[in-house]
Amino acid sequence: MNTVAVYGSLRVGLHNHSLLAGSEFVGEFKTSPEFKMYSLGSFPAIVPDAGGYPITVELYDVDAYTFRRLDQLEGCPDWYQRKQIQVGEHTAWIYYHTELHDTEVLSGNWKEYCMYK
């Protein structure tokens, strides 16, 4: 099993959440302030930034098959990259970009941003 931190279209109620069917929901958390979030239209990207802010994530324990499917969805390692981070007591994989984008999501909460844009 791998624990993944999802912050965009994979969160509950959003369009890619079905890819996590059968995975165990661990909980909703905030990351340490090491990222900034940007809108890429219908999905977000986070970028490592020492001046960042907490990002709202949901943690899931996923099997190897689901983990491979998430890598495919995220285009890892060509589009998104992933690394392990500490989220509370948990170590989780998170997908991120290395390039800055135009529209910053200052709240760090994609679901909130989607509801009010």
Provide the structure class: alpha+beta
Looking at CATH, which topology would you report? Hypothetical upf0131 protein ytfp
CATH superfamily: Gamma-glutamyl cyclotransferase-like
Strand content: 35-45%
The value of Rg in angstroms is 13 Å
Determine the N-to-C terminus distance.
36 Å
Strand order of the largest sheet: 2-5-1-7-6
State the CATH class.
Answer: Alpha Beta
Q: What composes the largest sheet?
A: 5 strands, mixed
Unreliable sequence segments: none
Count structural domains: 1
Description:
There is one protein chain. By secondary structure, the chain is of the alpha+beta class. The protein has one domain: Hypothetical upf0131 protein ytfp (Roll). It is 15% helix and 38% strand. It has two helices and eight strands; from the N terminus they run E-E-E-E-E-H-E-E-E-H. It has helices at 64-74, 110-116, and strands at residues 2-6, 24-30, 35-39, 44-48, 56-62, 81-87, 90-96, 103-104. It has a five-stranded mixed sheet. The chain has a three-stranded antiparallel sheet with strand order 4-3-8, with no helix packed on it. Strand 6 (81-87) and strand 7 (90-96) form a beta hairpin. The longest helix has 11 residues, at 64-74. It starts with a strand and ends with a helix. 26% of the residues are buried.
Task: Quickly list its features.
five-stranded mixed β-sheet, 117 residues, single chain, alpha+beta
Reconstruct the topology from this structure.
Elements: E1 2-6, E2 24-30, E3 35-39, E4 44-48, E5 56-62, H1 64-74, E6 81-87, E7 90-96, E8 103-104, H2 110-116
Parallel strand pairs: 1-7
Antiparallel strand pairs: 1-5, 2-5, 3-4, 3-8, 6-7
